[in-house]
C-alpha cells in the first residue's frame, strides 16, 4: 500500500483514461426472450457507434447476428427506440426457429434475417426519398405471419401529399407481411390505424381480434397527455370501431400489455404518479397498486417496464429516479420488492416464465441480467464493459435533496472525489451536471464518465431539477412555462448547497449539460455562481429551435415556454444567444455537424456572439455526428477537451491530456482564431472547410400564426439539407 500524495484537485493521477470511458463500453438495449434464447441490441463505439443484434442460445453461446455492413437503428421521432424483434419461422422441425426483423439505420427499411441465411432480405418497400419510410416499436401479429409497427412517412419534396400535410411527417400503425411481399409491392403494407399525430405501443390481442395502442396529438408530449385506444381487427383491413379506453389531454397513459384477449394492463399518471392499472374492453379502469412511486422511466418507443408471468403475477419496475423490480400478486394486491443487489433497472423482457432485464449498480456496469421472480436471484449474462477500474477509484454516490428557491425540493446525487492515491487541500472543485430532455432524469448507476472526473479530484453533482421524471406529475409540471428558470435555479441551488456544506470550493464551480441541459448551462452562466461551463449540442436560440427542430418536438416548447407567436418575447428572453451580454464566464461548446435536433447553426451563432464580446471560449465540431457522439474517438476527444477546459479555467494542469486554447475572437477563414486550433475537432472526422461555415447568426425566420415552425419542410425542421 502506497502513501497518498497531496496534489491539486483536478490533477490527481488516475488510471481511468478518456479512452477507457469511450472505447470500453458496449451499450445494451431492448432485450427479448423466448425460452432459453435471448436477443438484444448492442452498440459498438469502436465501430463508429454501429448497433448490432446479439443472440444467446440455450447453451450460453453468443452470436453476433449482423455483419459490419449493417447498423440496426430506427429514426422514428429522430430519437428512435426498439428497432428489432425476434420472429418465429416455420419449418419441418419440431422446435421453433427464430429469425429477426430489424430496421437498418442507413435506409430505414425493415429487413428479415432467418436462421442460417447468408444475408438479411428487405420486407418493407423502398421509400421514394432516402430514409423516408421509417418503422419502430414492432410487435408480432397474432397469426405469426406479420409484423405490426409504427410507420413514419416523410413525403418527398414538392409532392401534393407533402403540401397537404404542411410539410410534416405522417405516422400510422401498419401491418407488414413477413413473407417479404411488401418489399416489391407497397400495396402489401396494410394501414391499420391513422389520423393521430403520434403512435406508440401497437399491441395485438392474443386472439387477434383486437389491437390496442397509444396515441396523442400536437402540442402535447407523451408525458403530458395520451390515449389508450382499442379497435377490432377484421381480416386484412384497417382497424374498425376504435374507441378510447383511458387517457386524455391531462393524463399520460403508457405501455399497454394484454393480460388476456379482453383485458389490458397499462400505466397511468392519473393519480399523479405512473401506476399500474387494469381495464377490460368495457367498464372502468382498476388501480392495481396505488403508490407515490413511478412504474416506468417515462416514454420511449419499445420501453417495457413490466412483464406478465404465466401464473398471473406481474414483474414490475418501480421507484423514483432509479427503479428496481418487484412482483405484484393480483391475488393479494401486494407488491413484493426483489433484492437483487442492482440499484438501477432500465427495462424488462419476458415470455411468461423467463424474465431478463437491463440493470446496473453504483459499481456495476449496465448488464443483461436473468432474474428469478421468486427469489430475486440474478445471473449476469452480458456486461456493457468487462474491465473496470479498482472500485476505490469509483465514487460512492450520495442521493440527497436540496432546498431550492422558495423552499422547493431539488433532487440530486452527489459524487465526491475518490482516489486512494491522492488527496487535496481545502475544498474541491465541483461540476453540476444537468441532464437533457428537459423532461428526463439522471440515474445513479455507474458512469465512468463521472469517475473520469472524480478520480482526478473533481466532484460531480447530478441534478434532477424540477421537471425531471421520477418524482410524480406535479414535480414534472414545475417546468411548465418555466424552462430556463426553474432548471437554472435548481442547478444553481445544488451548487450553492454544496458550498454551504463546506465540500465545494465557491470559486471553482462549473456547470455542464447537453441538449436541453446545454440551455440550462448557458443561462446558469449568466449568474455569478459558476466559473465556467460546457454546453454539448445545447439549445441556444429558442425561436430558431421552434422553427428548425424535428416534428416530434416541434410543439414541445408550447408547454415548456408558451405558444407562439404570443410568447415570442419570452423565447427571446430565455435564449442564451440573446443573453451573451450577461455571460462573462468561459464556455466550451461541443457540437455534431449532422445534428437534426439542435442544428449546428445554433452553436456557431453562440460562438459568434461570444467572440463579439471577447468572451473566452472554444467551439469543437464533430463531423458526421448527430445529437450526441457515437464514435469512441469523438467521445474521447470531448472528455479530454472538457477536462483540459476545466484545468485552464479553474487553475490546475491535468496530466496526459492535450491542452486546449480558448479564443476570444472569431474564427478566421483558415479555421483558426487568434492562432488557436480551429473549430473542427481534428480527430473527429471534421474538416476545416466543414467547420468554417459562417459563424454569424442567421436572421430568425418570420413568425406566422403557427409560430413559424409549420411552414418549413420536414427536412428543414430536422436540420437536414
UniProtKB/TrEMBL annotation:
SUPFAM superfamilies for the chain: alpha/beta-Hydrolases (SSF53474), Tricorn protease domain 2 (SSF69322)
Region annotated Disordered, chain positions: 669-721
Biased composition (Basic and acidic residues): 712-721
Highest taxon of the lineage: Bacteria
InterPro entries: 6-blade_b-propeller_TolB-like (IPR011042), AB_hydrolase_fold (IPR029058), Peptidase_S9_cat (IPR001375), Xaa-Pro_dipeptidyl-ppase/CocE (IPR050585)
PANTHER family for the chain: PEPTIDASE S9 PROLYL OLIGOPEPTIDASE (PTHR43056), PEPTIDASE S9 PROLYL OLIGOPEPTIDASE CATALYTIC DOMAIN-CONTAINING PROTEIN (PTHR43056:SF5)
The protein's name in its UniProt record: S9 family peptidase
Species name: Streptomonospora arabica
Amino acid at each position: 500500500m502506497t502513501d497518498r500524495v497531496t496534489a491539486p484537485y483536478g490533477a490527481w493521477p488516475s488510471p481511468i483514461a478518456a479512452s477507457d470511458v469511450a472505447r470500453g463500453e458496449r451499450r445494451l438495449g431492448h432485450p427479448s426472450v423466448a425460452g432459453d434464447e435471448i436477443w438484444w441490441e448492442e452498440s459498438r463505439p469502436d465501430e463508429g457507434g454501429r448497433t448490432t443484434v446479439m443472440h444467446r442460445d440455450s447453451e450460453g453461446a453468443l452470436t453476433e447476428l449482423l455483419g459490419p455492413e449493417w447498423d440496426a437503428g430506427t429514426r422514428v421521432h429522430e430519437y428512435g427506440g426498439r428497432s428489432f424483434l425476434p420472429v418465429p419461422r416455420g419449418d419441418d422441425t419440431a422446435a421453433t426457429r427464430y429469425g429477426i426483423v430489424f430496421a437498418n439505420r442507413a435506409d430505414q427499411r425493415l429487413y428479415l434475417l432467418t436462421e442460417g441465411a447468408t444475408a438479411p432480405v428487405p420486407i418493407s418497400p423502398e421509400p421514394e426519398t432516402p430514409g423516408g419510410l421509417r418503422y419502430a416499436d414492432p410487435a408480432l401479429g397474432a397469426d405469426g405471419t406479420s409484423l405490426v409497427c409504427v410507420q413514419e412517412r416523410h413525403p418527398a419534396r414538392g409532392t401534393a401529399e407533402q403540401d397537404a400535410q404542411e410539410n410534416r411527417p405522417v405516422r400510422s400503425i401498419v401491418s407488414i407481411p413477413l413473407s417479404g411481399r411488401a418489399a416489391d409491392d407497397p400495396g402489401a403494407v396494410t394501414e391499420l390505424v391513422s389520423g393521430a399525430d403520434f403512435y406508440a405501443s401497437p399491441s395485438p390481442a392474443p386472439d387477434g381480434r383486437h389491437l390496442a395502442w397509444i396515441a396523442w396529438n400536437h402540442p402535447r408530449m407523451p408525458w403530458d397527455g395520451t390515449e389508450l385506444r382499442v379497435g377490432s381487427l377484421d381480416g386484412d383491413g384497417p382497424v374498425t370501431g376504435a374507441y378510447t379506453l383511458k387517457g386524455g389531454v391531462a393524463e399520460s397513459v403508457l405501455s399497454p400489455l394484454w393480460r388476456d384477449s379482453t383485458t389490458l394492463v397499462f400505466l397511468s399518471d392519473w393519480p399523479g404518479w405512473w401506476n399500474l392499472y387494469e381495464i377490460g374492453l368495457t367498464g372502468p379502469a382498476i388501480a392495481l397498486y396505488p403508490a407515490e412511486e413511478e412504474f416506468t422511466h417515462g416514454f420511449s418507443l419499445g420501453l417495457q417496464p413490466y412483464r406478465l408471468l404465466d401464473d398471473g403475477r406481474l414483474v414490475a419496475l418501480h421507484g423514483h429516479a432509479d427503479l428496481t423490480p418487484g412482483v405484484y400478486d393480483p391475488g393479494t394486491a401486494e407488491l413484493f420488492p426483489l433484492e437483487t443487489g442492482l440499484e438501477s433497472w432500465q427495462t424488462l423482457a419476458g415470455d411468461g416464465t423467463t424474465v431478463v432485464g437491463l440493470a446496473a449498480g453504483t459499481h456495476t456496469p449496465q448488464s443483461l441480467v436473468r432474474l428469478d421472480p421468486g427469489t430475486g436471484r440474478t445471473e449476469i449474462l452480458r456486461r456493457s464493459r468487462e474491465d473496470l477500474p479498482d472500485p476505490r477509484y469509483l465514487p460512492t454516490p450520495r442521493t440527497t435533496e436540496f432546498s431550492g428557491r422558495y423552499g422547493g425540493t431539488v433532487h440530486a446525487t452527489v459524487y465526491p472525489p475518490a482516489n486512494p492515491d491522492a488527496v487535496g487541500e481545502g475544498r474541491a472543485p465541483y461540476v453540476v451536471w444537468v441532464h437533457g430532455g428537459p423532461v428526463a432524469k439522471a440515474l445513479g448507476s455507474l458512469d465512468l464518465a463521472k469517475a473520469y472526473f472524480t478520480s482526478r479530484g473533481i466532484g460531480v453533482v447530478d441534478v434532477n431539477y424540477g421537471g425531471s421524471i421520477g418524482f410524480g406529475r406535479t414535480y414534472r409540471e414545475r417546468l411548465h412555462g418555466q424552462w430556463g428558470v426553474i432548471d437554472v435555479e435548481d442547478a444553481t441551488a445544488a451548487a450553492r448547497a454544496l458550498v454551504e456544506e463546506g465540500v465545494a470550493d465557491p470559486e471553482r464551480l462549473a456547470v455542464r449539460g447537453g441538449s436541453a441541459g446545454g440551455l440550462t448551462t448557458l443561462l446558469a452562466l449568466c449568474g455569478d455562481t459558476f466559473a465556467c461551463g460546457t454546453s454539448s449540442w445545447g439549445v441556444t436560440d429558442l425561436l430558431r429551435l421552434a422553427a428548425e427542430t424535428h416534428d416530434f418536438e416541434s410543439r414541445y416548447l408550447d408547454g415548456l415556454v408558451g405558444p407562439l407567436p404570443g410568447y415570442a418575447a419570452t423565447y427571446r428572453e430565455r435564449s442564451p444567444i440573446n443573453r451573451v451580454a450577461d455571460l462573462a464566464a468561459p464556455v466550451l461548446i461541443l457540437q455534431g455537424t449532422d445534428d437534426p435536433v439542435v442544428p449546428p447553426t445554433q452553436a456557431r451563432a453562440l460562438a459568434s456572439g461570444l467572440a463579439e464580446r471577447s468572451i473566452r471560449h472554444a467551439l469543437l465540431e464533430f463531423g458526421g455526428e448527430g445529437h450526441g457522439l457515437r464514435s469512441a474517438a469523438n467521445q474521447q476527444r470531448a472528455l479530454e477537451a472538457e477536462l483540459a477546459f476545466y484545468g485552464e479555467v479553474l487553475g490546475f494542469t491535468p496530466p496526459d491530456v492535450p491542452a486546449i486554447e480558448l479564443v476570444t475572437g472569431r474564427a478566421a477563414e483558415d479555421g483558426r482564431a487568434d492562432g488557436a486550433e480551429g473549430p473542427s475537432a481534428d480527430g473527429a472526422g471534421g474538416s476545416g472547410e466543414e467547420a468554417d461555415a459562417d459563424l454569424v447568426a442567421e436572421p430568425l425566420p418570420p413568425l406566422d400564426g403557427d409560430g413559424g415552425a409549420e411552414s418549413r419542410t420536414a427536412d428543414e425542421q430536422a436540420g437536414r439539407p
